[in-house]
Write a structure and sequence with these properties.
The strands form two sheets. A seven-stranded mixed sheet has the order 5-4-1-6-8-7-9. Strands 2-3 form a two-stranded antiparallel ribbon. The protein contains six helices and nine strands. The protein starts with 5 loop residues before the first strand and ends in a 5-residue tail after the last helix. The longest helix has 11 residues. By secondary structure, the chain is of the alpha/beta class.
Length: about 200
């Protein structure tokens, strides 16, 4: 299946975490020879109008042809989502955390195909929503801002406030890569569990 180019979508990589539990910068842990963040940027660059990195220090990403923006609301992933939407010049963003080792382009394309008429498209996996490999529209911005101003950084509390399309595991079952697309790496133990060589 040929990649679809989405002119109305910006790819956003969230990179504001401190990697404390991992003990080193998660974004640059190599997976099959490529740093995780580079795998995600490469996936996004072939499909989206622009690619942004949100959060962390700009110097970390100086070697990549992407725009970097500091978090408007630092310290939480919801703040990164809001920043991505705020600075994006497209009506939608597709967001990925920088610590996802196996992002799936086929899963991404399926989620993107469902975006029309919704503020967000979020998959369910392992009995939980997966908000950090998902789509958000500009219609989310005000709800995000109000929630952040209220001091509530919980992304899951956002979805009842917006029009959300939840994608069930059954919908993704036949898509290659869906079984591990939403895994993320927080600790050395996570790497061992996924049998990732250090």
């Amino acid at each position: 299946m040929e990649n679809t180019f989405h002119h109305s979508v910006t790819g956003v990589v969230l990179a504001g975490g401190k990697s404390r539990r991992m003990g080193r910068d998660k974004a640059f842990i190599p997976i099959d020879g490529l740093p995780m963040v580079e795998r995600i940027i490469g996936l996004f660059a072939g499909r989206f109008a622009a690619v942004l990195v949100i959060g962390g220090e700009a110097e970390r990403f100086a070697g990549y042809n992407v725009r970097h923006h500091p978090d408007i609301y630092p310290g939480c992933a919801l703040g990164g989502l809001y920043t991505g939407l705020y600075v994006a010049e497209t009506p939608y963003i597709f967001v990925s955390a920088c610590d996802i080792p196996y992002p799936s382009g086929m899963v991404m394309d399926h989620l993107l195909s469902l975006r029309h008429g919704f503020d967000a498209v979020v998959a369910e996996s392992d009995n939980a929503l997966q908000p950090l490999f998902a789509i958000y529209g500009k219609g989310c911005q005000e709800a995000m801002r109000l929630q952040l101003e209220d001091g509530n950084p919980c992304i899951l509390d956002l979805f009842p406030r917006i029009t959300t399309r939840t994608v069930t595991p059954a919908e993704l079952a036949s898509i290659a890569g869906a079984d591990r697309c939403f895994c993320n790496l927080n600790t050395p133990e996570d790497m061992q569990q996924l049998q990732i060589k250090q």
